[in-house]
Amino acid sequence: xxxxxxxxxxxxxxxxxxxxxxxxxxxxxxxxxxxxxxxxxxxxxxxxxxxxxxxxxxxxxxxxxxxxxxxxxxxxxxxxxxxxxxxxxxxxxxxxxxxxxxxxxxxxxxxxxxx
Length: 115
Known about the structure:
By secondary structure, the protein is mostly beta strands.
């Protein structure tokens, strides 16, 4: 069981960039999958990006080419670099970590993109 704390959210204009960070209380090198999900008002939580311990990545079609997920096993931190932001990217972003059947979530960080 690890605790995850997100940071880096905020208000940005369309076309701008933000980098989200997710600090883990435990070592992440042994975590199978880390990732980011988001939830916009009135919508279901959706996958944004994941990165496996082996380095494989997945991205939602809506963010491909604009967002990049990375994991720093030394700093025990997961990042989400978000470029060319759009108003439809506005949501609460949640960090996620899965090891075997154990899943942990962060508390979320708000990202608001103004047009």
